[in-house]
């Protein structure tokens, strides 16, 4: 078989395959033989249909098409094997099938054009002496106090309040019913339209502004027990329920009871109540160590991300479609697994209409992930960076001991994952040693992220959901 190779864009190899006359005739005759044994033609038993009748009834075009399908599949497979091409994904036919049928004559040579994706060549223009900037995340001592205060709030005792009006910080027990506020021009005598679901009895709410929609809490402040009041409020926009976003509302609220928090002292007894530590000093030291490490880890991650972003500016690689599609598949699979673990019905989220949109939106990230992986692999190859079997075995053992409850672990797969992660860690550490990453104040590179991180770091000041409080409690206890 004569095969001519051609380098194509998108990391493809073009193949021009010339199939010999003997093969084109042999395949054609074998197809006729197979059809003769299976064709149902009135007046003839299977396998006994005369050749001229078979050709007349089935038509030469149909027979040629069947023969061509075999010639194309076998021809491309043999060509890839013969030329030792490291193909990835499925080969693609470049010739027009219609043209092939018209040109196909059994007993004469046939030329087929195809293309196969191959691993891309990575050209690292530069990978040492890179210059980048990364945000330094500094340890904030207030996080320790915020965490302790949050735990203190959780252990608070609620004491009934008498003889005064509601104030910020109280716990109010209310009945309420909400309706849409009337708009200009609406009939004033008409009954207000109730808001679906905006009604409750003996509802307990902490009087902090961000515990409810704007206006609701401030309207309760100043009320006395047994008092009923109409409170104007406004649903924020955006809002979880899009039908309510931005809408003005009126709530009829009856204050039934007021309570205030009696907070425990922060001492050794408090430390023993919320953690496994005997003294407050030990608990504080543990939290300091945890948050310092967390800050150091975030800073290290920022340095790595900044360096990899800079590295990609110096990489030249033409990615094949197969790799991109495989990475998109992997990303969507990971997302589906994560959503499923959260109890969501993936089949309702990943519909046939939505999947193409998800795939398209994932392409940019998939391409960047592939480029990162290939670039790191290329650096490792050039600098002969490797992971030893002993290092892999030690990490695998550590993971198995860390998660003893996990059953049916595929150790071969785990070992492969560990090897890849350790190798990436080594390569990135090598890059950091041979480049310069300047640390700058947190938030100076990306104001949006500064706000997000600030909110996260100040979580002790912001009201938390019960679930978040539970997580915080677990965090301290496990310390």
TrEMBL record:
Residues 164-256 form the PPIase FKBP-type domain. Keywords: Cell cycle, Cell division, Chaperone, Cytoplasm, Isomerase, Rotamase. GO terms for cellular component: cytoplasm. Residues 441-479 are annotated as: Disordered. It is found in: Cytoplasm. Its EC number is 5.2.1.8. It comes from the Bacteria. Pfam families: FKBP_C, Trigger_C, Trigger_N. One of its GO terms (biological process) is protein transport. GO terms for molecular function: peptidyl-prolyl cis-trans isomerase activity; protein folding chaperone; ribosome binding. Its main location: cytoplasm. It catalyses: [protein]-peptidylproline (omega=180) = [protein]-peptidylproline (omega=0). Residues 1-150 form the Trigger factor ribosome-binding bacterial domain. Residues 449-470 have a biased composition (Acidic residues). Residues 279-433 form the Trigger factor C-terminal domain. Consists of 3 domains; the N-terminus binds the ribosome, the middle domain has PPIase activity, while the C-terminus has intrinsic chaperone activity on its own. Involved in protein export. Acts as a chaperone by maintaining the newly synthesized protein in an open conformation. Functions as a peptidyl-prolyl cis-trans isomerase. Belongs to the FKBP-type PPIase family. Tig subfamily. This is Trigger factor. It comes from Nostoc edaphicum CCNP1411. The gene is tig.
């Amino acid at each position: 078989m004569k095969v001519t190779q051609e380098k194509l864009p998108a990391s493809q190899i073009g193949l021009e395959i010339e199939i010999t006359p003997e093969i084109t005739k042999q395949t054609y005759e074998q197809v006729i033989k197979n059809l003769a044994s299976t064709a149902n033609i009135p007046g003839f038993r299977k396998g006994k249909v005369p050749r001229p009748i078979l050709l007349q009834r089935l038509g030469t075009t149909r027979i040629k098409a069947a023969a061509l399908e075999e010639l194309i599949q076998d021809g491309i497979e043999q060509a890839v094997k013969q030329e030792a091409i490291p193909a990835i994904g499925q080969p693609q036919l470049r010739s027009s099938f219609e043209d092939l049928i018209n040109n196909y004559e059994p007993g004469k040579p046939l030329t087929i054009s195809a293309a196969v994706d191959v691993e891309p060549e990575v050209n690292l223009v530069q990978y040492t002496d890179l210059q980048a900037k990364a945000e330094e995340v500094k340890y904030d001592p207030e996080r320790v106090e915020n965490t302790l205060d949050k735990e203190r709030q959780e252990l608070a005792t609620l004491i009934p309040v008498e003889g005064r009006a509601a104030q910020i910080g109280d716990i109010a027990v209310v009945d309420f019913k909400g309706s849409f506020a009337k708009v200009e021009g609406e009939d004033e005598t008409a009954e207000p339209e109730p808001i679906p679901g905006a009604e409750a009895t003996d509802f307990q709410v902490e009087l902090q502004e961000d515990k409810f929609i704007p206006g609701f809490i401030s309207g309760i402040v100043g009320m006395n027990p047994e008092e009923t009041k109409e409170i104007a409020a406004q649903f924020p926009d955006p809002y979880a329920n899009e039908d309510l976003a931005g809408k003005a509302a009126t709530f009829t609220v009856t204050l039934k009871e007021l309570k205030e928090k009696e907070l425990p002292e922060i001492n050794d007894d408090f430390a023993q109540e919320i953690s496994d530590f005997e003294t407050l000093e030990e608990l504080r030291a543990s939290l300091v160590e945890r948050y310092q490490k967390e800050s150091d880890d975030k800073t290290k991650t920022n340095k790595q991300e900044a360096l990899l972003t800079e590295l990609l500016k110096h990489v030249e690689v033409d990615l094949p479609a197969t790799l991109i599609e495989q990475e998109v598949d992997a990303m969507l699979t990971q997302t589906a697994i994560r959503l499923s673990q959260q109890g969501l019905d993936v089949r309702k989220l990943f519909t046939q209409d939505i999947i193409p949109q998800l795939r398209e939106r994932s392409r940019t990230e998939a391409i960047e992930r592939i480029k990162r992986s290939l670039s790191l692999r290329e650096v490792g190859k050039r600098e002969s960076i490797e992971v030893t079997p002993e290092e892999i075995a030690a990490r695998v053992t550590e993971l198995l001991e860390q998660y003893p409850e996990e059953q049916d672990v595929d150790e071969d797969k785990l070992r492969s994952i560990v090897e890849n992660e350790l190798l990436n860690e080594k390569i990135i550490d090598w890059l950091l040693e041979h480049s310069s990453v300047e640390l700058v104040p947190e938030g100076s590179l990306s104001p949006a992220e500064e706000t997000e991180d600030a909110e996260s770091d100040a979580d002790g000041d912001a009201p938390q959901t019960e679930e978040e409080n539970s997580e915080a409690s677990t965090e301290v206890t496990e310390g």
